[in-house]
Amino acid sequence: MTSIAAVLSAFIVIIIVWAFLSRLRLARRVDRMTAFTGKIAAGDFGSRIASGGGDELGILAENLNLMSEQLKKNVDALSKEKVVLTAVLKGMAEGVMMTDAKGQVGLVNPAFLRTFGIREEDALGRPLVEVIRNEGLLNLYKSAHERKDYTSGEIETGFPEPMYFIAGCVPLIIEDNFSGIVIVLHDVTRMFHLERVRRDFVANVTHELKTPISAIQGFAETLMDGAINDKEKAARFIGIIESNAQRLSRLVEDLMTLSRIELGEVRLTVRPVSVKDVAAEAAALLEPKIKEKGIKLLFEFPGDMPPVLADRDRLYQIILNVLDNAVKYTPRGESVTIAGAGRLAGRAEKSGGIVEVSITDTGPGIPQEMLPRLGERFFRVDPARSRELGGTGLGLAIVKHLVRLHGGSFNIESPVSLSNNSSLPAGSRGTKVTLSFKSSL
Q: Of the N and C termini of the chain, which has fewer Cβ atoms inside 10 Å?
């Protein structure tokens, strides 16, 4: 009996020790799994845990390893998608902003920040109504938030200058839950300006055509009603009809020239050309007008002034247009000067292969605020006087386009405004048009 008791005691001790060791081994495996899951939670997907056998804990360990690998793949894929999304948002011309369900900004791209002149750190995490002060955009956002439906409309911003956008507010609905709104801004400023230019152009053309057509129609009807029998009146009326017909012809011809230039249909035959010779040819055509007004035409070209690279016919058209304007607006008995620009002590200044030619009149001058608009279609400083002198308002527009087609530049300066007294000395008033071309040397 004593020996049996001893065997049982030993067996119980063995069982207790085995249970203790098993518990210790199990605790260590559980601790390793706990540490492993902690690493996964911290974003460390590179480590692995030994399975330690084919029991339940071993299977759990293998599943944890598989889960870690899958999580790593998913996180890597999400990271790549985030990088791509960030790059796309940064590269987009459209402004993009996203808010959460409470209206707080969660995402914004550089284009949106530039549009409203705000910084990213001042926008993220703040309510939209505190970030954006644009009433039009806030009204669209409010409508989309209330209706939980796409809302769009036109808005205007004033920073850094007036711009026009189509704004779209798209609600984010995830599993039937409203999660926020994405705002997208499409810049339509250029389209807006082009549409305005188109409307202005149509209005201007209509206005310019209406006056001569009305004059032609009116005097033709008068002649038909019997005035044709009065030779003196008939001759005067026919002269008026002819003058307005010529004005219509000039207008149509100028419009066609501008159209061909803008459509790229004008081809230049570039070769070395003497500006002085072309200016003399243009002056010869205008000689009757110059003599009739008693204008003194001055040529100030230095002998060593190089030729320019230009199409001779187009260069002639450029100088003729500018010189014609100068003669029109120069008072009787005064002067117009054609010179090589940049002269120093009577010699041409040749800098960077550029030759400058200026045409300066002694007319009334141009207001400083109007100088930037010179060269626009149909723009006139004094519309009534321009029409009286037969101008179409397209001459300088043609000059500007042709000069740029040559790769040159076009500049207008005027020291006084139209409000100045025309009795000022000739040297202190007038307008100077400077044309720059590439030298052939």
A: N
